[in-house]
Amino acid sequence: MPDRPEVTAVEIARLAGVGRAAVSNWRRRHPDFPRPVGGTDSSPAFALTEVESWLRSQGKIAELPLLERVWRLVETLRDPAGHPAAPLVRAGAVLLLHHREPDRWAALADQPDTRLATALPRALADTARTVFGPDAATGPSTGPSTGIGADGSDGATGPGRPGLFGSTELDLARLLARLAAEAGPAAAYEQLLTRYAEANTRQLSPTPPEAAELLAAVAGVPATVLDPATGLGALLLALPSTTDRYGQDTDPVTAALARLRLALHAPAADPAPLPVDLRPGDALRADAYTGHTFDAVLCQPPYNERDWGHDELQFDRRWPGGLVPPRGESELAWVLHCLAHTRPGGLTALLLPPTVAARRAGRRVRAELLRSGALRAVVALPAGAAPPYGVPLHLWVLRAPRPGDDFRQVLMLDAAATSPGSAELAEGGRDKVRWPELRRTVLGAWRAFDLAAREGLPLPEDRPGRYRTVAAIDLLDDETDLSPARHVPPAAPPGGAAGLSHLGGRLTELLDGLADPGTLLPGPVADPAPGAGAGAGAGPVVTLGELVRSGLLEVHSSGAGAPTRPAATDPSGTPVLTDQDLVTGAAPGAVLDRDAAGGTPLTRPGDVLVPALGGGVARVVGPGGPPAGAALGRQLHLLRPDPAALDPDFLAGHLRSTAAARRAASHASTTTRLDIRRVELPRLPIAEQRRLGAAFARLAAFDATLQQAAALGHALTQAVTDALAAGTAEPPSAP
User: Fold this and answer.
1) Is this structure's pTM higher than 0.70?
2) Could you check whether the bond before residue 611 is cis, i.e. omega within 30 degrees of 0?
3) I need a surface site. Which of 139, 270, 644, 708 has the fewest CB within 10 A?
């Protein structure tokens, strides 16, 4: 284990806010770049202190961000043979001390290292006991545990280590104190847990807070709630503080992280123990709450598990009528487990893959849930709502039947249309989910349906294209397919006949507004002499790299882009353009994160934007183009010409040409990247540039109008097709 943290090239790029290729270039071009101290030839590791010093001397960072310094020390404390999250248990305990007893930390911070190394572990264990009660320091057991040993060790990882902190741990404690002072203890821990989840995506896929809040809102205000697959505790964290929360997780260290997270979000002045009971263990094989029921059970279980205990649980009491879930239907085993722990009349809500609603192997279990009246709603969510983000998950809502309850209706709700489809969900696409609209849609329909079911009121009328109430008996067939899309009737065209007429009128306007293609054609051009070049190669040329060196052009490249959040969360925030926005001509769908590092360039009128991958697209900022005042998202080049020497439309036109894409492209195994500085332009007077630029601008406007007309034409034909298929419109008379 290294004495000081090490970083890879990817992590150096993160620190400096550049792409990985930039780090490779630095290594080649700068002989004083730090030498590798570990890793492999293909993935070398560098000393963080040396990298930080070099970046600062080159003016690439003023100081290593505090969060990065904390994270590197956490990584240093990791035992290669132990659990990767074990250092986060101790980090959470330090932050908990700041949260609950800030005066005690202040007194400890003034002590010399020799005294602090002994006193701090005891203080951490004492603080844990004040929050979780006398059993908090016992380590993992069948009862509640913080995972912090009586000596301050991370008890969740095994026997407690000696109650003494080393120098690196003391450095971490002091940096955590600074981070807690800047962001608050709870926010500081959230940042660390986010970094941990990003670094361990294969082992951990936390439920996003927005999805957790949706499930909690569906549950209402229950007195007791169980989450049998707790993970980092997102679902329990979304519940009201008055709710007693119970949970179980296979990994005891993850359970300890969840307890610390919940404690850090609880009021610091509350002297009562936290109303949370988290227990380690596999909930299906080793149920820690056998015989207990709760007002509500919320869960996002693990998906596609083959070894979930099918053979050893053949006669388990949780299976109704001895109906054992098939081996390939682990998700249905979780559904029955949750239902078995729900009191009669209580609610169960789970996030499940859409295949659970239709797989043939699970039809008997689905049929039993319908016959018993337990299943109350299946909601199709948009892709991007929760991991895996490319899959449009379903939300299942059940109520444990009461004796004599004969309600047998199911709400089928298709909420997928409230956000873009999965085809639009590229990297970061989960930010495109319109959560306010999604919450209104789901909660409005569910609460109206549930109130009618519980009070014996008339059920809400069906809404084509959105939801429908279906009798359970109508769903019982050879497939028992519970996919909402199969049962919700399609929506009528927007505005009916008037809406179709409006679409047709708008399409006619666009087509009438198109320029006569003849006006776009060039004048007579003489054939080039044999052996002569054409275009930019026919006369003197200059590369964009030469223009940059001469000061006539600025080039800014975004790399991975700055951190963002959905634009709906802050309409007044700085919009962020991505490469997809540029290609499609869409308005920015995200804004710059408040915590994003400053210095990112904002677009100005006359700037030219080009995607880094591919070619053939270049747009000028201004009327009809990308907006001014936007930050660069991922994989974009911003070119800022001196308008007195280089016309923006002239520059953009040449960047859209086939020759530019061919001559300045570099190729990887699956992508083509535009080497922007190799693009060649003909040397022309500014007056001639502007004349050509005006022609390029007319062509760009013609192309944009054609794309709008094509999209509108597709929308019109689809709307008319749906109306004819639904019988809500008569076919037009034959010509």
Assistant:
1) no
2) no
3) 644
